[in-house]
Each structure stands twice: as structure tokens, then as C-alpha cells.
Write a sequence for this structure.
């Protein structure tokens, strides 16, 4: 039975082979050739189909790779499961793409920021701000009436006495919501022109938890605000009780939002290698100036060596005496001047650094408070207060805000750096450069190297709050444009007047 079924199944094949053997040789060759051609066509078509399918998958992956997702269809869902989706890069390139000459690249590796959405009650915040203002006015009046020292011309008072706990709590809540500092240093070290002390001071001013804010005023001069932190470091000059009452450790001086030049001046000073300004950052306080960014400058108690009642260590000089000291080159080569020479305690090179710095920022409140070297506007302070009329007798005009530390009378400290970026090149204050015969080589080399923009961008980028408050990259570029144009004018002035560029390591 089994053999008969096998023969029945193989009968058609046996009959076909017997017929094929009986065919002529030419006919059999033609049949074999036709079968080979058909098989070859089937193999080629299969290879073409598989290649087209592979190219289609590759193009689809390349098209969607930049969007960080794949467009998966039903036909190739199985293949797409094994595809590897690229991850987002952690490197951000700040490229100087502009019409300016010789653009540079600023590169920084940025860690991904994890942000939490915080629910805010607008009505509660507005009510808190209004109540805060009322409380501050009441506190200021009460403390001024009852707590002001009787035998001192200086006053240091807590202007946020009643609302201190609320301020502390709100700031602590804000710190809990954001663990990322506003000082952006993503590489292993900061730019070389910033010292480790500068970086520590910047982080403290930007991120320190505020415990108390005090208002300090002296007679008729403008008062200023100092903030204190919860954990104080070892006090500076503890022998002065008034200093300890003002700041028991490390503090910061809060300026008005309009004084944003303080932050730019700090970075410009470090880029030029002058190192004469105090560290400054931009910071927001929810209980001050409606949350607008405020410049915060490091508090330096050494500027008050004899206590707050005695005031700051200032150099008293008239314009005529200042010009005479420039001619005598006071303290040059550590040679002590004669007692009747009229020299101050400041080294001769310090005036050159001050003049270069003030000219780039057009700061006139030190060497030219009366605005004698340019055309002031009617709303300028020198015109409003009537100082501009003193230009008729220029030699007797008093220099102001010339400060030094108590233990270091040879070197100046640049404070109250209120510069002006809206002054055109045809109205610059060249009086600031009058009598200057030498300028620091390190600062001038930066201006000549065409790398001022690159360095300022790298430095200012560290302060995220200031960077964003000026409109980001576009706003910062406009400020640097002004400084670059003034630098060109200064370099032309150096060549025209034969000013020497020398090393000033004092």
C-alpha cells in the first residue's frame, strides 16, 4: 500500500523526466537556459527590493535625527524598535555671529537644569508687597525717632525689623525651589582674570541667604543698604565696635537698580587687569524695588579704618593739587616726596589706572564732578546742583570719591562706579586724561589685541541675572560696542599725545 502511494505521487515527475530525456539535445539545452534566466531575474529583483527598503529606512532616520524622535509607521514598526534615538548634547556654543570683525567663540558645558513649576498666588504677592512698603515706612520712622544713637553722626538701623521673619521665610522658600546658582561657571575654573577670592565673593553676593537688611546713613550723605547673612564669618577689624554693629561678618551693599554699571565696571576692571573695584553681582530681592535686579557690591570694612563715625578713607585734593602731583610723580620708585611737595599718599601710577578706567566708562564723579570736560545735559546732577558753574575756577574744584583702604594708602579703590553708555564720541570727557603721561601696559594691550569683546562676554556671561536684565546677548553686545568705540578713541589719543605705555606693577 505504501509503495503504490509513493509511485502515484512520483508518477508525474517520472513522466516529465522521461519526456525530457526523449527530447532532442537542442530543445533540452533551450529549456535549461530558460530556467536559469528566470532564476537569475528572481534573484536580481529580490536584491533591488531589499536595497530600496534599506535606503528608505536610512533616509527616514536621517530626516528625524535632528528632532530627537522617529516617525514610526505601521509597516516598519518592528525595525524601528531596534533603532537608537540620539540623546541631546550637553554642550552649548555661544558663537559671536555678528557683523563685527574677528568673532570669537565662547564654549561652556552646561548641565541640564531641572525646573519645578511653582504655583504662585498673584493676589497674595501683591498684598505682601503693599504691606511691606507700609511696614518699612513705619519702621524707618519709629527706629529713627527712638533708636538713633545720640552721640554719633552715623546711623545703622534695621529698616525691616517687623517683617524680618517674613523676608527670611520667603527667601528660604525661593532657595528650596532653585538649587542652581545664578553665577554660571560650568568649566573646571573661572576665567583667568577672576581670582578665587573674586569667585567666592560673587557666589556669596548672589546666593547667600539674607537674614537682615540694615540702612546706614551719615549726616546729609546718601544712605545705603547692607544685607547680612545667617552664618557670619570672622569679623574684619573687630576692634572697631561701630564696624561690628554695622556688619558682623561678610555682607553686601545693595545699590539702586539704575546703578547697573557697578557690575559691568567690576568685570571690565578685572579684564583690563587693574583689580581696583570691589566684587559686584546683580541680584533680585522680592521685597525690594518690585523684584528688579539690583547691583550688590561686596562690603569692605577696611575702607572705614577709624570707624563709621570718622567716615571713609578719602584723599582730599583739589584739581590744581592733583595736576601738581602728576608732574612730581609722587612715590615713583618708592621715593618719599618732600613734606612741602603737596603730594598725597597715593602712588603716581594709580592715577593713570583711574584715568583709563574712568574714560572708558565716562565716570566723571571722581576727577570731574563739575562736568567741566564735556557738555552736560540739563538733567545731569552737576547742573541741577549748580556744580557746573564752578568750572570758572577749575584749580580749586575738589576731587571727590577718591578712596583707599586704611592699611593700604598707596592704592586706590574704585567705588561708586556710575558710568554712562549714552555719551557720544563727540562729547567725551577728555579732562579725565589731562596730565596723564603714562598708561598701564597690561590694560592697553587688551585694548589693542582686539579681544576685549571676547573676554567681556566670557566674564559677563557668568552673572546670569545681569546678563538677562540687559537683554541677553543682544543687549550686552550694545554695551560692549560703546566701550570698543571709546577704546579706539583712547588708542588714537595715546598715539597723538605720545603717551608712554609701561608696566605698572605696584
Amino acid at each position: 500500500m505504501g509503495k503504490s502511494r509513493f509511485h502515484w505521487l512520483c508518477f508525474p515527475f517520472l513522466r516529465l523526466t522521461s519526456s525530457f530525456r526523449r527530447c532532442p539535445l537542442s530543445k533540452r539545452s533551450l529549456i535549461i537556459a530558460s530556467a536559469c534566466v528566470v532564476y537569475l531575474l528572481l534573484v536580481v529583483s529580490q536584491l533591488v527590493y531589499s536595497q530600496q527598503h534599506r535606503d528608505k529606512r536610512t533616509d527616514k532616520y536621517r530626516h528625524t535625527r535632528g528632532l530627537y524622535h522617529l516617525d514610526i509607521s505601521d509597516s516598519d514598526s518592528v525595525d524601528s524598535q531596534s533603532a537608537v534615538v540620539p540623546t541631546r548634547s550637553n554642550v552649548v556654543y555661544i558663537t559671536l555671529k555678528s557683523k563685527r570683525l574677528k568673532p570669537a567663540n565662547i564654549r561652556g558645558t552646561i548641565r541640564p537644569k531641572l525646573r519645578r513649576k511653582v504655583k504662585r498666588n498673584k493676589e497674595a504677592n501683591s498684598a505682601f508687597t503693599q504691606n511691606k512698603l507700609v511696614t518699612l515706612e513705619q519702621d524707618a520712622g519709629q527706629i529713627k525717632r527712638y533708636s538713633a544713637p545720640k552721640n554719633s553722626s552715623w546711623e545703622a538701623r534695621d529698616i525691616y525689623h517687623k517683617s524680618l521673619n517674613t523676608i527670611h521665610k520667603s527667601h528660604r522658600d525661593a532657595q528650596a525651589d532653585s538649587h542652581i546658582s545664578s553665577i554660571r561657571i560650568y568649566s573646571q575654573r573661572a576665567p583667568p582674570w577672576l581670582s578665587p577670592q573674586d569667585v567666592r565673593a560673587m557666589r556669596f553676593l548672589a546666593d547667600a541667604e539674607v537674614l537682615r537688611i540694615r540702612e546706614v546713613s551719615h549726616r546729609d550723605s546718601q544712605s545705603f543698604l547692607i544685607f547680612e547673612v545667617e552664618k557670619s564669618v570672622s569679623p574684619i577689624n573687630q576692634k572697631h565696635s561701630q564696624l561690628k554693629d554695622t556688619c558682623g561678618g561678610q555682607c553686601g551693599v545693595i545699590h539702586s537698580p539704575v546703578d547697573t554699571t557697578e557690575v559691568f565696571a567690576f568685570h571690565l576692571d578685572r579684564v583690563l587687569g587693574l583689580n581696583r573695584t570691589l566684587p559686584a553681582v546683580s541680584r533680585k530681592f522680592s521685597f525690594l524695588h518690585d523684584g528688579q535686579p539690583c547691583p550688590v557690591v561686596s562690603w569692605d570694612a577696611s575702607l572705614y579704618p577709624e570707624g563709621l563715625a570718622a567716615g571713609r578713607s578719602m584723599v582730599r585734593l583739589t584739581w590744581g593739587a592733583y595736576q601738581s602731583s602728576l608732574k612730581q610723580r609722587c612715590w615713583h620708585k618708592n621715593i618719599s616726596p618732600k613734606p612741602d611737595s603737596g603730594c598725597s599718599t597715593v602712588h603716581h601710577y594709580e592715577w593713570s589706572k583711574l584715568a583709563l578706567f574712568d574714560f572708558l566708562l565716562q565716570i566723571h564723579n571722581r576727577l570731574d564732578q563739575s562736568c567741566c570736560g564735556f557738555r552736560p545735559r540739563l538733567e545731569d546732577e552737576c547742573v541741577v546742583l549748580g556744580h557746573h558753574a564752578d568750572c570758572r575756577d577749575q584749580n580749586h574744584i575738589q576731587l571727590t570719591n577718591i578712596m583707599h583702604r586704611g592699611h593700604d594708602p598707596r592704592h586706590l579703590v574704585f567705588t561708586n562706579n556710575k558710568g554712562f553708555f549714552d555719551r557720544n564720541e563727540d562729547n567725551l570727557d577728555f579732562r579725565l586724561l589731562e596730565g596723564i603721561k603714562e598708561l598701564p601696559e597690561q590694560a592697553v594691550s587688551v585694548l589693542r589685541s582686539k579681544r576685549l569683546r571676547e573676554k567681556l562676554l566670557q566674564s559677563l556671561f557668568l552673572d546670569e541675572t545681569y546678563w538677562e536684565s540687559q537683554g541677553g546677548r543682544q543687549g550686552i553686545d550694545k554695551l560692549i560696542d560703546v566701550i570698543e568705540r571709546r577704546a579706539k578713541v583712547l588708542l588714537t589719543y595715546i598715539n597723538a599725545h605720545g603717551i608712554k605705555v609701561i608696566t605698572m606693577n605696584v
In short: The chain has 15 helices and twelve strands. The CA atoms of residues 164 and 451 lie 46 Å apart.
